[in-house]
C-alpha cells in the first residue's frame, strides 16, 4: 500500500482541525478501516505460486549457463547470459513490452501442448550473425531489411541453441523442442488470448561489447500439466530417487579404471619463426629448451602430472617416473 508523506504545513492544519472539532479522529479511524480493501485485477490473475516461479527461475538459470557455453564455442568471443527476472503477466502486456520489430522464434515442446516464444533483441541477433560471418560482432540492427540468408542463419542458430532447452528441463519433464515459426513482427503472433497468463523469463545477454535481452514467454497452458512438479517438494523427492543403487559406485569406479587416457613424455619445447618453419628439411636440428640430463615432464592428457627420466626396457624406449608434480590435476592423485 502506498503511503503519502504530509508536509509540515499540512500536519499543522490537520492538528488545528482536530482541536477545533472540525474533524473527528474516531470517524477518520473508522473510515480508514473501511478502506482496507485489496485491489485485484482479474486481467492479471496470478496463476503461478512463488514456489513455482522459483522453480522456473532455477530451470532457466541452468538454461542460461548452457546457452553461455554454446554461444561461446560457436562465436569464439566473450559471452555471458544470466537470468534477470521471472514474471507472470498477461500475454497482451508481453507483446506490448517488446519492440515492434524484433526477432521472434516460436517453438513447440511436445509432449506439452502450446508453444513457447523466444524473443531476441535485434542487437544481440545481429551481433551473433556478424560473428558467425567473420565480423567483430557489431550489434548494428537492420531488422527491417532482413535478407533471406540472414533469416536462415538466425533461425538455424537459435534452433540449435534452443535444443539445450531439453537438457535444462530434463529433471522435470522430457521435451523435444522444435522451431515452428520465425517472425519479426509481434503483432502477427496471436497464439493465445490477450488476457491469458504467461511467464516471461528475461535473460541478460552480453556478446563481446553488445548487450541486450533474450525473453522466453511460456503460456500457462504449456506448464499446466506439470505444475505439480514445479515445487520444492517434488525436487526433494527427485533428489531422493537419484540415490545410487547398490553396487553402482563400484561399477562406476571399475569403468573409470578401464578408461584410457593419453600419457605423453615431453622432451622439451622450442620457438622458431614462420620462415624457419617453412624452410625445415630432412636432417635439420631443432634445439629444445631442456638439457639432456634434465628430467622430462610427463603429462596425462594435457596436464603436467609427473617428472620422469628417459631410458630403455628390453631394447625399447621407456620413461621412469621419479616424482609427481604438485598441483597436477588439481592436486588429486
Automatic annotation (TrEMBL):
UniProt entry tagged with the keyword Electron transport: no
Localization per Swiss-Prot or TrEMBL: Cell membrane; Bacterial flagellum basal body
Pfam families: FliM (PF02154), FliMN_C (PF01052)
Stretches assigned to the Flagellar motor switch protein FliN-like C-terminal domain: 255-325
Transmembrane segments: none
Keywords assigned: Bacterial flagellum, Cell membrane, Cell projection, Chemotaxis, Cilium, Flagellar rotation, Flagellum, Membrane
Bilayer disposition of the protein: Peripheral membrane protein
Record SUPFAM superfamilies: CheC-like, Surface presentation of antigens (SPOA)
GO biological process: bacterial-type flagellum-dependent swarming motility; positive chemotaxis
MF-aspect GO terms: cytoskeletal motor activity
GO cellular component: bacterial-type flagellum basal body; plasma membrane
InterPro entries given in the database record: CheC-like_sf, Flag_FliM, FliN-like_C, SpoA-like_sf
Predominant cellular place of this UniProt entry's protein: membrane
Family: Belongs to the FliM family.
Function: One of the proteins that forms a switch complex that is proposed to be located at the base of the basal body. This complex interacts with chemotaxis proteins (such as CheY) in addition to contacting components of the motor that determine the direction of flagellar rotation.
Protein name: Flagellar motor switch protein FliM
Lineage of producing organism: Bacteria, Bacillati, Bacillota, Bacilli, Bacillales
